[in-house]
């Protein structure tokens, strides 16, 4: 990334020699991503992260196709980047929405999707893996259904890259795929969107012809360079080493065998780095504060607003009570996580739960 903060600081849209040099480097970055994804370079759009990619995919495609229909489909356990976007389209632009339910493990049933598609359905958006529970969706099967029914399919694959096996961008059977750099050790504020040719979603940013007229705004070459390097290094061979992390995660997940602690992750078909629990009767903020005092950084699946905690919409969709959905805590393992750290988390968390029963 450093050369783009110094030697190659030019604007890739400028026609002078410095700009032309940087433009060539930007084109090279796009080609490098295309080689990993096994797609055309023109199908790679660089963005500021997952949220922008999601908004471009959903808003851009819905507006582009609104003359053909206004029916959208998503699932109840999507990230709020998706849920808030489709809600905006429904409330402000007259679209119609069907929200698919999930089973007790947080997965969408392909048959439910097939049944929900109507003559005026134009877009389906279902994530590849859930950020709160780690549950992996049958995303390729869902995409195949959309292909058969002639409906665009978008998948938020932010949690997939760097963790699950990757062969090509086409393995999702999706027309649009969202990725985010910092989820696999790329820089924050970097992302990309795969847009299958010849689809041309309406832009959501205006002011210039950047990214082949699909995303206005001067490209952040430093972030793009870091994203591309991370894609090359950490996606074909996932940086999250599954065999090692599964062993550590299995030990961490053993907390679910303790009375009063519930393991939320499915036992199969889940991300190797994610372990989520609920402790009914102890809200997420209290748990996170206690862990933080011990130097443990964890997170909750729900959002804080003015000091009050809302129940996790993912757990609510899975049929959990508000009491349980309000007590979610999530641990995320990384490439540097050690067995000693897992043992420390087990000791700290179990001591906290025992003291607060």
Describe the secondary structure blueprint for this structure.
Layout: H1 17-37, E1 44-47, H2 50-65, E2 71-75, H3 80-93, E3 96-100, H4 110-116, E4 121-125, H5 139-149, E5 152-156, E6 176-180, E7 191-195, H6 210-213, H7 221-234, H8 242-253, E8 262-263, E9 274-278, H9 284-293, E10 304-305, E11 308-309, H10 313-317, H11 322-325, E12 328-332, H12 339-355
Parallel strand pairs: 2-3, 2-4, 4-5, 5-6
Antiparallel strand pairs: 1-7, 6-7, 8-9, 9-12, 10-11
Helix pairs in contact: 1-7, 2-3, 8-12
Features:
three-stranded antiparallel β-sheet; seven-stranded mixed β-sheet; 12 strands; 357 residues; Aspartate Aminotransferase, domain 2; 2 domains; Aspartate Aminotransferase, domain 1; alpha/beta; single chain
């Amino acid at each position: 990334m450093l050369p783009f903060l110094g030697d190659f600081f030019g604007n890739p849209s400028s026609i002078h020699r410095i700009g032309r040099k940087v433009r060539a480097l930007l084109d090279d970055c796009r080609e490098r991503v295309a080689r990993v994804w096994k797609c055309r370079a023109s199908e790679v759009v660089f963005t500021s992260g997952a949220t922008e990619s999601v908004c471009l995919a959903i808003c851009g495609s819905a507006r582009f196709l609104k003359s053909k229909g206004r029916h959208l489909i998503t699932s109840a356990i999507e990230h709020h980047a998706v849920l808030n976007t489709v809600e905006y389209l429904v409330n402000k632009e007259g679209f119609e929405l069907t929200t698919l339910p999930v089973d007790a493990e947080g997965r969408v049933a392909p048959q439910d999707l097939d049944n929900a598609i109507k003559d005026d359905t134009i877009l389906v958006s279902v994530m590849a893996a859930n950020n709160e529970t780690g549950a992996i969706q049958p995303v390729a099967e869902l995409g195949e259904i959309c292909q058969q029914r002639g409906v665009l399919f978008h998948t938020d694959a932010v949690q997939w890259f760097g963790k699950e096996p990757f062969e090509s961008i086409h393995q999702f059977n999706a027309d649009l795929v969202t990725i985010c750099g910092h989820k696999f050790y790329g820089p924050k504020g970097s992302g990309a969107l795969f847009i299958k040719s010849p689809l041309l979603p309406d832009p959501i940013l205006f002011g210039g012809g950047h990214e082949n007229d699909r995303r206005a705004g001067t490209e952040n070459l430093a972030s793009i360079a870091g994203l591309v390097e991370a894609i090359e290094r950490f996606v074909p061979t996932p940086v999250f080493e599954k065999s090692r992390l599964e062993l550590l995660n299995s030990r961490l997940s053993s907390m679910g065998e303790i009375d009063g602690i519930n393991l939320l992750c499915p036992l199969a078909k889940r991300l190797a780095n994610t372990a989520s629990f609920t402790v009914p009767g102890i809200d997420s903020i209290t748990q996170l504060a206690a862990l933080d005092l011990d130097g443990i950084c964890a997170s909750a699946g729900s959002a804080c607003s003015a000091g009050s905690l809302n129940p996790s919409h993912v757990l609510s969709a899975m049929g959990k009570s508000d009491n349980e959905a309000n007590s979610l805590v999530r641990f995320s393992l990384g490439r540097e996580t050690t067995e000693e750290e897992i043992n420390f988390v087990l000791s700290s968390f179990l001591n906290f739960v025992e003291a607060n029963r």
